[in-house]
Amino acid sequence: VKGITVFVSKAMAAFVTVAQEKSLKRTAEKLCLTVPPVSRMLKNTENWFGEKLVIIERNSVTLTPFGINIYRQILPHYLSLQNLSKRKSRAPVTISSPVVHAAFFDEILQIVVPDIHECPVIKYAEHIHEDDDLFIHLNPVACPACFEESVRCLELYLTCHNAAETRWPELNLLVGSELLFSEAFHDALENLRAQGFKGEVRLLDNAKIRALLQQSGAGLTFRCKPDKYETVRRGDPVCYRQPFYVYRNKYSRIRLPAHDRCLPVREEHPAGVAGESS
Q1: Residue 19 buriedness (CB in 10 A; 0-12 / 13-18 / 19+)
Q2: What angle do CA 124, 182, 107 make, to 5 degrees?
Q3: Looking at the predicted structure, is the pLDDT value of residue 274 above 50?
Q4: Is residue 32 left, alpha or beta, with left meaning phi > 0 and alpha meaning psi from -120 to 50?
Q5: Residue 86: its pLDDT value, please?
């Protein structure tokens, strides 16, 4: 099978791939095979175990309880064997995340890989993939054994146009969908309500339109490192710590900065000098 290290059997690759793809056709395509040999390998594996591993219905594949148990035991070893050969290559570094389109993703990368000297492949993904070097999420997720977790934080400041500062509690809060799935954001929203915020939360995934509406005085946004004059309550800015979880493949050549915890919000405003000169 093209691309599979000699330490991984075709049968193991077929079983793990079909468990992930849940389709004989997609499994065959991924392994550069056709459906019949994939089916035969699965059948031979079941005969070897003496137990049913999968249920196949019209090309759709579901693991049996025994199959799920075997998959969970095999997966860490399968990934480790694959990485023996894959990590020797000079393939581009891959960074995956479901929040790659977030306005603050650049700041996340500056925290996670501040000294990277190569152009990474950055892709949208909702789950960790075996080929990822790094996977980034705003909430903790389950990860394979060959990944290690660390947690970092961003400081996000509530901003509005300076002409709308006095009526900020009445404005709507414009957010991207990535924050709606963040527990820390919802905690921050409760805190805002306690401080008098009466507006609605409006979902708006286009960061440029969010910025235009904020600049026109039509809404509030959470931003990383804003100018001081943009922040709500400039003398006592409203902000919160947004944790994000970094999953690093242990076989990756990427190394993370040493600190891996959420630090307290800085007392000094991040753009104090710029704001004072505005």
Answers
A1: buried
A2: 60
A3: no
A4: left
A5: 54
